[in-house]
Amino acid sequence: MALTPQNVVAWHDRTPAEHGALVDKWAAKKFRTLSLGLYGTTVQPLYAAVMVKRPTVIATKQFGPVNQAGMQKAFDEMAKLSARYFASDEAREGMTAFAEKRPPAWAQDV
Question: Fewest CB atoms within 10 A around its CB: which of 9, 18, 51, 108?
Answer without folding.
Answer: 108
